[in-house]
Task: structure prediction
Amino acid sequence: MAEIYHASPSGKNNGPAKKDASGHRPDPKNPKKKLSPSGKFLVALAIIAGVALLLWGGYHLIIEFYNGKFNTNRNDTKVVTDASQLPSETVNESLTHYALSGTQTGDKPSVPDAQFNAEGLPLITDTDTVMNILLIGIDARAKENEAGLSDTMMILSINKSTKSINLVSIERDLVVKVPGKGYQKLNAAHAMGRPELLLKTLKENFNIDIHRWARINFFSFVDVVNAVGGLDVEMTASEIHYMNFYLLEINDLYKRAKGTDNLKEVAGTYHLNGYQTLAFCRNRYTDSDFGRMERQRKVIDLIMQKARRLNPVQLNTLLTTVLPLITTNIEQGERHDLLAAAPTYLGYTLNKSSVPERDDWYGGNVELDAGVRSVVLFKNKKQSFIKLYTMLYGVEPQ
Result:
C-alpha cells in the first residue's frame, strides 16, 4: 500500500506521516480534532437529552390531541322545573322486581379529617392521594336535549397510596331531599338541575363532597364496546332471557330487524357486541337493580381489562370513539394529567362495591313529591357510609 506523506512549509517532502494511536495516519486535507472522553460524554448526553425532549414533547402533543376530544359543553341537557315533569319510568317499578333483603322498618391529608355530619356520616372528599370523580350515566334515548334521569351513578375513586381504583355504584332509588325540589329519588336530581344539583344533593344527604363529574349517555355503551372489539361475558340463562327482551327496544331504536343479536337461553360465556352489552347492562329483572349495578361494574371492569391489551391502533380507535361521548367539568390540565397517568392507573387493583350493599337495605312504597314510588332505604345508613369511607381510604374514620 502506498505511503501517505506530508509536506513541510517549505514544500519539501519530510517522509511518511506518523500514525496515531489507532494505527491511522491523519489526512492533511481533512484534519480532525479528537474529542476527549469527557467531550464524547457531553456530546452523547446532549443527543440523549435532545431525543428525550422530542419524545416528551411528542408524547404531550399526543395527550393534548386526545384531551381535546372531550365534550365540555356542560349544559347540553334540559332540566325539568318540578316533579310532575320528570321523565316517566319505562318499565314497571313494582317492588316485586326487588329482591328484598330485610324486613321493612323505618391542604389535604392522606385521609379526610374526622368530619361527621349530624347523622354521623363521615366526610367523603378528595385528599392528597385520593381523587374522586362522579360517573353519571343517563338512560336517555334522544342523543341531545333530553332531561335525563341519572340511572347510573358511580364514584370512581383513584387512590395513589393504596394503588387501587374503587368503583362504587350509588343506588338510584334512594330517597333524598333534593335542594329546592323536595323529596325525590336520587336519580331525579340530575334531571332537575344537571350534575351540579346532583353533587349538591349528595353533599347534603350523604356528606359526599365531590366536585368532578363525567357524564355519558348510557346508550353510548354500544360505541364503546364495539370500539374494543366486543366483550366476553359470562351470563346465566335468565340474564340472556332479559338481554333478548331489552334488545327488542334497542333494535327498534337503531332501526335493526327484530330478533337481531338474540341468543339462545343457555348459560355460558358469550362474545357480546355493543348492542348486546347495552341490553345486558340494562337488565334489572333477573336479580333487582342491585344485580344491574353489578353487571354495569362488571362490564366496566372487562372494558378496562381489554384496554390493557389493545395495540396502539386499537387504543387510538377506542380513545377517539369514547372521549367525545364524555361530557365533563374536569379542567383541561387535570384531564391531561389523568390521560398521561392512565397506563399506570390501568395497572391498579380494581375494587367494586355499592351504596348501600346488597344486605344493607330494604324496600318500600313512599310518598314523594312526584307521587308514590318504590324506593330503597338504608337499614343502617351510618354503617353503610363508614364502609364506603373505609373502602376509599383504606382506614376506618376516626
In short: The radius of gyration is 30 Å.
